[in-house]
Write a structure and sequence with these properties.
Blueprint: E1 14-18, E2 22-29, E3 43-49, H1 51-61, E4 65-69, E5 71-73, H2 76-87, E6 96-98, E7 105-111, E8 116-122, H3 135-142, E9 147-150, H4 155-167, E10 172-176, H5 183-187, E11 192-195, H6 199-204, H7 209-219, E12 225-229, E13 235-240, E14 250-252, H8 253-263, E15 273-275, E16 279-283, E17 287-296, H9 312-320, H10 326-341
Parallel strand pairs: 1-4, 1-9, 2-7, 5-6, 9-10, 10-11, 11-12, 14-16
Antiparallel strand pairs: 2-3, 7-8, 12-13, 13-17, 15-17, 16-17
GO molecular function, one term: kinase activity
Family: Belongs to the carbohydrate kinase PfkB family.
Keywords: Kinase, Transferase
């Protein structure tokens, strides 16, 4: 992917992230060790990481102007994180730098045989607290912003930022990777949500994946769409209708999802998007939502080209921050995520 292939960039699009940054130690091994084994890595790379850090880096490399609210310590890891983010074009002027404690870091074991990665995370200390972000800094951080993104970390500070963003009518994207302290409060402010495969059912306790999406939109009236990422299976998106669509036909959401999956052309290697017409989507025991259902496919990566899936979901979010209609956004985000999987370093493609 080159800069020439990107969609037209909205002029001066500024996005603000709030969440985790870290240093990642990516050790590639021939195969994951058994307990008590001693093995050697085939390669080792040290790079910046963390969900918000990765997504912001991706956004910057796509040509956006990202700002980031987070915290590091004044240690070697923290200095490296700031230097790398700044070199990539991420505005770190709203970071809190602690003179004590430690910055976040993660050991990532990349298994060459199974193409999987195992993460062992050490949180930063002391954590970011709301009192460390002054009102003047908060207002400056939000000035001119087109969208705010939260990865669910630093939840108390994130909630302060979310409330001010909502007051200014700035769209809010919340990543729901898994249930975390304070995530429910953030989701109440969400305009958009991007979830891991297991989150919707775990959060809603709905009996099926598709009914969980209906439940999320019913529980979160401000939510315009929810996307669930499914790795090599692509993604599913449910978008709420703006106009209500009172005359739309009613369909069972699971039946509609299955019918869209049947339309997929599995012979295509590049990402595609299939969408329903606007309809009333129902789920037994849950309720009804008027909207559109989308099925996005993932790019098919030959095994010989698949290097590391670390950060693929963060790259997907970075591409969503670009801001496009769903039919273009889902294939674009899938392509960006796939490109990152072809290299051991996140989104090394521009």
């Amino acid at each position: 992917m080159s800069s020439d292939s990107l969609p037209p960039l909205p002029q001066n699009r500024i996005v603000l992230g709030c969440g985790q940054v870290a240093v990642d130690f990516l050790a590639t091994v021939a195969s994951f060790p058994n307990p008590d084994d001693k093995i050697r890595s085939t390669s080792l790379k040290v790079q910046g990481g963390g969900n918000a850090g990765n997504a912001s880096t991706c956004a910057a490399r796509l040509g956006l102007n990202p700002r980031l609210i987070s915290k590091v310590s004044n240690d070697s890891h923290g200095k490296g994180i700031l230097e790398e983010l700044e070199a990539d074009g991420v505005d770190t002027s709203f970071f809190i730098v602690s003179e004590k404690g430690n910055s976040s870091f993660t050991y990532v074991i990349v298994d060459s045989q199974t193409k999987t990665r195992t993460c062992i995370h050490t949180p930063g200390y002391p954590p970011l607290i709301p009192e460390e972000l002054s009102q003047s800094s908060l207002l400056s951080a939000l000035d001119g912003v087109n969208m705010v993104y939260f990865d669910g970390r630093h939840h108390e500070t994130a909630l302060v930022v979310a409330k001010e963003a909502a007051r200014k009518n700035i769209p809010i994207l919340v990543e729901a990777e898994r249930e975390r302290e304070g995530l429910d409060d953030l989701l109440d402010f969400a305009t958009y949500a991007i979830c891991s495969a297991k989150f919707p059912q775990a959060w809603t306790e709905a009996p099926s994946f598709s009914s969980a999406l209906i439940s999320m939109l019913l529980r979160l009236p401000k939510l315009k769409f929810v996307i669930v990422t499914l790795g090599e299976e692509g993604c599913i998106m449910l978008e709420r209708s703006v106009n209500g669509g009172s005359d739309a036909e009613e369909m069972d959401v699971q039946c509609l999802l299955e019918s869209l999956k049947l339309i997929k052309d599995d012979s295509k290697t590049i990402p595609t998007c299939i969408s329903s017409v606007e309809t009333k989507l129902s789920a037994d025991g849950i309720g009804t939502i008027t909207g559109k259902l989308f099925v996005g496919t993932a790019e098919k990566i030959p095994p010989s080209e698949l290097v590391d899936t670390t950060g693929a979901g963060d790259a997907f979010i970075g591409a969503v921050l670009y801001g496009m209609p769903p039919e273009k956004m889902l294939p674009f985000a899938a392509q960006v995520a796939a490109t990152g999987c072809r290299a051991p370093r996140l989104v090394s493609f521009l």
